[in-house]
Amino acid sequence: MASRWTAVDRVEQGALSTMFAQAVIVGTALTVGAIACSGFYLTMIADPTTNAPVVALVPWMTVTVLIAAIFTYVVGFALLWCAEAFTNRMKDKFKPWAYAVIGLIGYGIWGMFVMSSTMNSLNQSLNGVVLANSDIAALTVNYAVFGFIAFLLAQAYGTKLATKKPVAFALLAVQVVLAVLGIIVMVMIFGQLPSSK
User: Which residue windows are transmembrane per the record (predicted)?
Assistant: First the structure.
């Protein structure tokens, strides 16, 4: 850990900061998770009578990636800093697991409140209902699992990625492009919603 809170840890001279590399890993893992589970999330807000999806899968996927990216580069940085401070005197073999628990709690809460609110905004407007408690529980567990995996990988491989700038920036670029598409899609989707059902 850096000796001062304004200092930046680097594996070697010229490498990326370790925390930035960790954030890229978190973002990559959460992006993969968002893409993999976007269909699962979409079934939760399908039309209750016809079971038809409320939006197409690919545009919805970019929205889920946007929500993951916002977490990563806003809340995620704060959680990585907290995890680093928390594990400063911890034995190295336990550090990835401590990071993972912090990711589990943080991303689980994010899924429960932010993702469920986003989904409810669509569901309420289009179907006149909100997510069932079982859906919110499933969403929270799903997000918690991906948070656990993402932060575990970030702590375990952050220093390795920090020395590979081209790979780190390529992963970041993919996340940024998908998140920007997510913003565009979200504006288009919410712009088309009826004011009341």
Answer: 20-45, 57-82, 94-116, 136-157, 169-191
